[in-house]
Amino acid sequence: MAVPVILDCDPGHDDAFNIMLAAAHPAIELLAITTVAGNQTLEKTTLNARRVCTVAGIEGVPIGAGRDRPLHGTASVAVGIHGESGLDGPGFGEPTVPLDPRDGVTLIRDTLLAHPVPVTLAPTGPLTNVAALLLGHPRLAERIERIVLMGGSTGRGNTTPAAEFNIVCDPEAADIVFSSGLPVTMMGLNASHQVLATADVIARIDALGTPLSRLCTELLTFFAAAYREVFGFTAPPLHDPLTVAHIIDPQLVGLVSASVAVELTGTHTRGATVVDLDGVTGRPANAQVGMDVNVAAFWDLIVEAVRTLGGHGRS
What we know:
This protein is an alpha/beta fold. The chain has helices spanning 13-24, 42-55, 79-82, 104-114, 128-136, 165-169, 171-178, 189-192, 199-206, 211-231, 241-248, 295-309, and strands spanning 3-9, 28-35, 63-65, 119-123, 144-150, 184-187, 253-262, 273-276, 287-293. α4 (104-114) crosses α5 (128-136) and α9 (199-206) packs antiparallel against α10.
């Protein structure tokens, strides 16, 4: 039976591939897509979700625009990585996939209430929408099967030395999610930096020879240049699809149980995920943390998703 999933995202190049993977694979029942400010402003991430669904031929999945700023403070964006549009690289026409009239949090609420079994949430941006749902509708926690998120790290960050982008954009929201008592699986930088879109990977996708594969090649080429310039990476890590890939194949990523605390007040460490891998704090585990990744199996899933969605391309 396919796993019912709601994607909560901030597209973003890696989010685009996560949307395609969730829509293409028969193990996933993609119920809804909600957007949040993160890699770009809410207006742009929402437009990008509609763009991706349009070019990939993904129809019938409602898209709702969520929160445009963190629970506290102001939003920040990742222009240096994802560009002014949030999906720089290819050219996109006007999307034909519509925007749902409900806001993102309401769309999640309604979807949880309507579905006959508990639903898995896969957030791959700042956790503002999920935290707002838990704050505003605490009884709906029982309708959530688990939360599989991309964010955090067992080691260094990528936005500050200590903090990863998704978490530092809204640490209070992340703290609410990790403290919720719900089953949480964290795919952090320590895992996602293993799945690099090398030249060989990009060549595999390009060799599919479809309009969609060419667009994906252009996305990854821009993403690679940005990571090379900003971080000195030889190839860019495709962070977000680790969430859906793990839901599809639970053996793809090795997990360890650990206590994860979100630093809220540190002068140099705000937004850090403090992962107690050795149990030194004595705190009970509140998360499963991704560690070792079957990289070949991951890329097989991504390439097959682009192949499955096939002949779609620019609108």
